[in-house]
């Protein structure tokens, strides 16, 4: 006859602790019978956590049946639950299979009722770990909340079909084409994720290739192309003369940006996402090279910029600082606000953007010089998939780009250009 365990009180149960190994002195897991119901044990792990266990024979097996954690489940409640389990076993039921069945039913219910709103939130939460820019999470959420949620939000994802997608896209496809295509792609990603996880099956109704491309005109053919407002090439020398006569950090930052054909965030940073602009440690004064780290580049690759004499003169006018200090700080130090250069251009009464000077540079290189296109593309750090351009990108063409930027400086400051002098600059490096 099996030994009957002593019926412990609530105080005695509270005092139970892990067992110490007499040889090593380490704590080990132990299961204490607490009495009151045969087979009821309190499992105490080496870490000190506690769990109620019922050891009872089901058929020809004697599994562990978990009854919950202690002290969340007190002694009296654990005994009551154990008695209920044993009553079910005596009645020929399997409590473990019953729990598994309930879990399967709950999962099936969740799968059948997952709404697009919930799927969107979970997908963005998961995907946000990959976003390089924190603003991307906000952009995803805002665009889908504005255009998709009113039509799809409460729908179970398994029920979403083509008419629902059309309800989202029809009103905006031709009037807000770029936004519409982004929304479509984001819906496609979310529904694709749902399919992988078993929440829906069948065709993805937001898919473009071979599906929606048969319904809507191509975004590339109908979207209105917007460009950053750029200064006409012929006005560049006069603008630079005006800029050089202005004092202040913003004027020097814009001058440096123009002379290096750089992006705004590369020069002054982006305060909204906590990214600094150019710092002193990025400048090699001896070699006259500015090395922009990959995390500040659109291409996600390190970019080296040859600095002309005029660009170096701009740096000399700035107060030297620690290696990590910004060269062009804001009025209160640190990263300037995002309208730092915009405000300067407004004061100069110029309806252009800082980014637009890259377009001016490209127009100048294309229209007024004989440099190969690859040289100016590398100067702008444009990403190219073409194999030939990719090969040039690997070599960086620093020497040829230095000639190009020197000519750009000469044009900006003195209105001279290589095309005017009759020089022809070849892309060839002299090798076969």
Essential attributes:
432 residues; alpha+beta; Double Stranded RNA Binding Domain; DNA polymerase, domain 1; hpI Integrase, Chain A; 3 domains; 4-stranded antiparallel beta sheet; 3-stranded antiparallel beta sheet; 45% helix; disordered C terminus
Brief synopsis:
The chain has 432 residues and is an alpha+beta fold.
Protein described:
The chain is an alpha+beta fold. The chain folds into three domains: 100 residues, Integrase, DNA-binding domain (Double Stranded RNA Binding Domain, 2-Layer Sandwich), CATH 3.30.160; 107 residues, DNA polymerase, domain 1 (Orthogonal Bundle), CATH 1.10.150; 189 residues, hpI Integrase, Chain A, CATH 1.10.443. The protein is 45% helix and 9% strand. The protein has 19 helices and eleven strands. The chain has a four-stranded antiparallel beta sheet, covered by helices on one side. Strands 9-10-11 form a three-stranded antiparallel beta sheet. Strands 1-2 form a two-stranded antiparallel ribbon. It is elongated.
Instruction: Give the end-to-end Cα distance, rounded to a whole number of Å.
Output: 96 Å
Helical/strand content category: alpha+beta
The largest β sheet comes out as: 4 strands, antiparallel
> What percentage of the residues does DSSP assign to strands (E)?
5-15%
The CATH class assignment of the largest domain is Mainly Alpha
CATH topology of the largest domain: hpI Integrase, Chain A
Radius of gyration: 34 Å
Succession of helices and strands = HEEEEEEHHHHHHHHHHHEEEEEHHHHHHH
Assign an overall shape.
elongated
Number of alpha- plus pi-helical segments: 19
Helix content: 40-55%
Query: How many domains would you count in the coordinates?
Result: 3
Q: What is the CATH architecture term of the largest domain?
A: Orthogonal Bundle
Instruction: Report mean pLDDT, rounded to a whole number.
Output: 87
Task: Give the strand line-up of the largest sheet.
Answer: 3-4-5-6
Number of DSSP strands?
11
Low-confidence stretches: 418-432
């Amino acid at each position: 006859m099996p030994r009957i365990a002593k019926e412990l009180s609530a105080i005695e149960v509270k005092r139970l602790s892990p067992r110490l190994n007499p040889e090593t002195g380490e704590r080990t897991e132990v299961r204490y019978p607490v009495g009151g119901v045969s087979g009821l044990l309190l499992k105490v792990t080496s870490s000190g956590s506690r769990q109620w266990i019922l050891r009872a024979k089901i058929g020809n097996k004697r599994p562990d049946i978990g009854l919950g954690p202690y002290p969340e489940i007190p002694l009296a409640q654990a005994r009551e639950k154990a008695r209920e389990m044993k009553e079910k076993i005596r009645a020929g039921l399997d409590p473990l299979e019953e729990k598994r069945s309930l879990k399967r039913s709950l999962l099936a219910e969740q799968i059948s009722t997952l709404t697009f709103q919930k799927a969107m939130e979970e997908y963005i939460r998961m995907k946000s770990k990959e976003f390089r820019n924190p603003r991307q999470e906000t952009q995803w959420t805002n665009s889908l909340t504005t255009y998709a949620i009113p039509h799809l939000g409460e729908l179970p994802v398994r029920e979403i079909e083509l008419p629902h997608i059309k309800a989202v896209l029809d009103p905006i496809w031709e009037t807000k084409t770029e936004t519409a295509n982004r929304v479509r792609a984001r819906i496609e990603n979310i529904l694709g994720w749902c399919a992988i996880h078993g929440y829906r099956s069948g065709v993805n109704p937001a898919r473009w290739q071979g599906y929606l491309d048969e319904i809507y005109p191509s975004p590339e053919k109908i979207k209105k192309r917007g460009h950053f407002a750029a200064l006409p090439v012929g006005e560049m020398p006069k603008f630079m003369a005006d800029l050089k006569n202005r004092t202040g950090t913003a004027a020097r930052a814009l001058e440096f940006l123009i002379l290096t054909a750089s992006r705004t965030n590369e020069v002054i940073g982006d305060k909204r996402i906590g990214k600094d602009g150019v710092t002193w440690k990025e400048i090699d004064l001896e070699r006259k090279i500015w090395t922009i780290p990959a995390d500040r580049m659109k291409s996600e690759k390190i970019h080296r910029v040859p600095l002309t004499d005029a660009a170096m003169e701009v740096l000399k006018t700035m107060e030297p600082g620690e290696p990590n200090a910004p060269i062009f700080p804001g009025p209160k130090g640190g990263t300037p606000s995002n309208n730092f250069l915009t405000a300067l251009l407004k004061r100069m009464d110029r309806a252009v953007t800082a980014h637009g000077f890259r377009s001016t540079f490209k127009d100048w290189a294309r229209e007024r010089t004989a440099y190969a296109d690859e040289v100016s593309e590398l100067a702008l750090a444009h990403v190219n998939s073409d194999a030939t351009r990719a090969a040039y990108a690997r070599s960086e063409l620093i020497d040829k780009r230095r000639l190009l930027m020197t000519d750009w400086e000469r044009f900006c400051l003195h209105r001279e250009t290589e095309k005017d002098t009759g020089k022809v600059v070849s892309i060839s490096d002299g090798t076969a």
